[in-house]
Amino acid sequence: WCGFLLVALVSPRMAGLRVDFGLLLEPLGFIKVLEWIFSIFAFATCGGFQGETTLLVSCKGVVNKTVTAVFAYPFRLNTVVFSAPDPKRCGGTWTDVYLVGNFSSSAQFFVTLAVLVFLYCIAALVVYVGYKHVYQQNSKFPLTDLAITVITAFLWLVSTFVWAKALADIKMSTGASIIPGIESCKAPGTTCRFASVTSMGTLNVSVVFGLLNMVLWGGNIWFVYKDINLHNQSNRIS
């Protein structure tokens, strides 16, 4: 797409900026604006998250001491350690306790796609608004736009469901179910109780925006298809 845009800008035959915001009122342009906005919300709600899970620990010389583990994007939980209950580490019975799981690949796939979509929408809107005549006269532009739209819709489908599965696992790895797996909590005289975990509502919203992006890009396939010669030829044949 960027290559074709560059050709459009440097070609003497097609050069000439003609700003026309009229296409933004048509489905093709209006959906692209929505895709641009929703991609921002997708990577912001996922990539900007930071939370913590908290336990209450009682051990030698310590009663209901709060220990926390702070986690954030890209959710490499296996590198997140709980703070020690006290400087003496419960008389030597407390060892470093890490959360379980590495969900960075799923989270980064989702966020990277959203960022790339954000950049692509900007490039597409520049062409729609400033080079509408080039887009309509050169069949390569609609064909390229259609191919990218189909691929992007598929990637939104894959990345959203992969991220939704990872989010479910993140909730498990930071919830009350982690206590039976903590060896330090099994030491004589030591008890651990789950206290709280940061609400993951914004991460749930990121999944919703992923689904919305998938629907938008899927529906956009039809509007882009209408601008290619194959559609025009089928109308003439009919």
TrEMBL record:
It is found in: Membrane. InterPro entries: Marvel (IPR008253), Synaptophysin/porin (IPR001285). It comes from the Eukaryota. The chain crosses the membrane at residues 109-131, 143-164, 203-225. Residues 23-229 form the MARVEL domain. One of its GO terms (cellular component) is synaptic vesicle membrane. It is a multi-pass membrane protein. Keywords: Glycoprotein, Membrane, Transmembrane, Transmembrane helix. Its main location: membrane. PANTHER family: SYNAPTOPHYSIN, SYNAPTOPHYSIN-LIKE PROTEIN 1. Belongs to the synaptophysin/synaptobrevin family. This is Synaptophysin-like 1.
